Inverse folding.
């Protein structure tokens, strides 16, 4: 069961910085993604990176959790403009009720994005711009996404537990939820 409030804690980013959750000065969008190098996650996070200025202007801090090690995250995701958290033991995943299941990849609604993500990954590898996605990712391939909007007082005014690998908030959905939470 997802929490309705979040107790204050400090998370360590892969860059070694500390992030306070909740943040007393802004909303936090706590994203749970799959493994470092995940083609679906990569497409999703690039859409957030492209609109990062809008997200910041809405007073939202992006904190992204992966069930991979910090070393794997640095290899694949290190250039993202967000706070990246390694959680290879999945402690945060369990706390927030974010699961793994075969439906992550078997749900037909995820297939178009899986195809686009794999095509993008192959293109990046062939152009020598990205390493190939891991053959055996940390924590496996069956992780489901999760999104949590956390208010400065620790309340969780909105959350989404994904039903398949591509079931997460878009930037537009996040901005609309944040606007509602701020009023």
């Amino acid at each position: 069961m997802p929490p309705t409030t979040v107790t204050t804690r400090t998370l360590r980013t892969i860059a070694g910085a500390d992030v306070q959750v909740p943040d007393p000065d802004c909303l936090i969008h706590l994203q749970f993604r799959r493994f470092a190098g995940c083609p679906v996650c990569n497409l999703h996070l690039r859409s957030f990176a492209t609109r990062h200025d809008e997200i910041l202007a809405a007073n939202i801090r992006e904190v992204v959790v992966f069930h991979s090690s910090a070393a794997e995250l640095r290899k694949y995701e290190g250039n993202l403009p967000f706070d990246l958290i390694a959680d290879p033991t999945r402690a945060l995943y369990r706390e927030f009720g974010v699961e793994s299941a075969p439906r992550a990849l078997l749900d037909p609604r995820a297939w178009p994005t899986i195809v686009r993500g794999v095509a993008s990954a192959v293109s990046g590898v062939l152009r020598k711009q990205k390493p190939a996605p891991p053959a055996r990712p940390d924590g496996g391939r069956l992780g489901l996404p999760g999104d949590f909007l956390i208010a400065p007082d620790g309340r969780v005014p909105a959350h989404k537990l994904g039903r398949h690998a591509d079931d997460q908030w878009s930037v537009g959905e996040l901005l609309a939820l944040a606007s509602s939470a701020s009023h």
About this structure: The two ends are 26 Å apart (CA to CA). The chain has a mean pLDDT of 87.
